[in-house]
Amino acid sequence: MKITITFLTLLISMTFIGQNQTVLGKWKTIDDETGKAKSIVEIYERSGKVYGKIIDILDVNKKKSLCTNCTGDDKNKPVLGLVIIKGLKKDGAEYNSGKILDPITGKEYKCFLALEGNEKLKVRGYIGISLFGRTQTWQRVK
Question: Which residues form the DUF2147 domain (predicted)?
Fold first, then answer.
């Protein structure tokens, strides 16, 4: 009886731990050059792919910023509400094969995401191969 209860407790605990190991949710973006928090991005899944949308801008003076350097459909759209991560697919422990938009420069980069524990997200934008790019570490919003 004790073994059964212990096994069930362990199984339930592992289920909850596994559910928390996801990139989905709200993340505080941290600028890799200044170390300052810039925005909150909500990462969500749609049709089997992962996307990320800016849901809050932390600098009050930039809340009404437009993506003036963007091209195509994103040109002159408000940065608040802009989808900046597009079309990532799960590949083992990473998410890749999608794009990330830098709303300041308007440039799009290849992107991959990887969890570091449950509270940090490694976000890498790059051109060509992953060697040529930048990595930011975002923090999960509780």
Answer: 25-140
The DSSP secondary-structure symbol of 67 reads -
Name the token pair of 110. Answer: 């290849």
Return the CATH number at 132.
Answer: 2.40.128.520
Per-residue pLDDT tens over the stretch 19-42: 458 999 999 999 988 999 999 999
For residue 12, being part of any structural domain is answered with no
Residue 7 lies in a domain: no
Q: How many domains does the chain have?
A: 1
Tokens matching residue 29: 């973006």
Which distant-in-sequence residues (6+ apart) come within 8 Å of 100 by Cβ?
A: 52, 84, 85, 86, 108, 109, 110, 111, 123, 125
* pTM of the full structure: 0.84
Q: How far apart are CA 54 and CA 80, in angstroms?
A: 6
